[in-house]
């Protein structure tokens, strides 16, 4: 969420809980740096979109690396408020992440979840 918001606001946030740099790390002679304060996220020199990478390595073996790219600019004269929801419902959209050991297991899990959600929607009517 933090990376997506940084892309949306074109802002790089300070590195949380950073106090002292390890003496063996030489930032002065490399391309890396540690942010001490929020700063504008400059557009890439090549003119492409801003891209962020997020890694999470769980103790139980759940590992993920996600690459996010900023959205394309809106057409000239079009404001974000002018966009309409493409979902035919009045409910908020949510991302649901599913994981399984095999494609077959994932398919069964997704099907079961879809059935559960549809039953709940039918009960709401």
From TrEMBL:
It comes from the Eukaryota. GO terms for biological process: fatty acid biosynthetic process. Pfam families: KAsynt_C_assoc. Keywords: Phosphopantetheine, Phosphoprotein. One of its GO terms (molecular function) is fatty acid synthase activity. The keyword tRNA processing does not apply. Residues 22-115 form the Polyketide synthase C-terminal extension domain. InterPro entries: PKS_assoc, PKS_NRPS_Biosynth_Enz, Thiolase-like. GO terms for cellular component: cytoplasm; plasma membrane. PANTHER family: FATTY ACID SYNTHASE (PTHR43775), SI:DKEY-61P9.11 (PTHR43775:SF37). This is Polyketide synthase C-terminal extension domain-containing protein. It comes from Haptolina brevifila.
